[in-house]
Amino acid sequence: MQPAPLGAQLREWRSRRRMSQMDLALDTDISTRHLSFIETGRSKPSAQMLQRIADCLEVPHRARNALLLAAGYAPDYQERPLDSPEMAGVRAIVDHVLKGHEPYPALAVDRHWNMITRTRRSRS
Predict the structure, then answer these.
(1) Three-state DSSP class for residue 115
(2) Which domain holds residue 46?
(3) Does 57 lie in the same domain as 27?
(4) How far apart are CA 11 and CA 44, in angstroms?
(5) Most confidently modeled of 48-52, 77-81, 85-89?
(6) What is the pLDDT of residue 3?
(7) Are 52 and 89 within one domain?
(8) Measuring CA to CA, how many Å separate 54 from each of 19, 60, 72?
């Protein structure tokens, strides 16, 4: 599946945040014309410019990687599985929250609704 072009992704995020081109241009300190050229593909933004726009639109890291890839840059953010050593702290937090729900059932799911972990079954 081909990823969406950069301009289409930017327009999508701008509409999600209910921002006009003028509002986004003013907030990112670029001209409306330059932003329009980026969205139509007539201009290629630098990676720094793209990060500035993504910051203003509060784009999540996974989507920022998609923006960077669509613009021809390498992704800035790595995605790691929850059971990797680097994510041990996050996993501990998830386990702590689930432990707080015991003896009642609770589970943690990922963004695709796949179960990651759950509370242990209590024996009565």
Answers:
(1) strand
(2) 6-70
(3) yes
(4) 15
(5) 48-52
(6) 76
(7) no
(8) 13, 8, 16
Count of other CB atoms within 10 angstroms of residue 15: 10
Distance (Å) of CA 124 to CA 103, 104, 121: 10, 12, 10
**Residue 76 placed within a domain:** no
> Rounded distance, CA 31 to CA 23, Å?
10
Q: Are residues 10 and 61 in the same domain?
A: yes
The pTM for the full model equals 0.73
Report how far residue 54's alpha carbon sits from residue 76's, in angstroms, rounded to the nearest whole number: 12
pLDDT at 121 over 90: no
The pLDDT of residue 43: 94
Query: pLDDT per residue over 28-69, tens digit each?
Result: 999 999 999 999 999 999 999 999 999 999 999 999 999 999
Is 17 in the same domain as 40?
yes
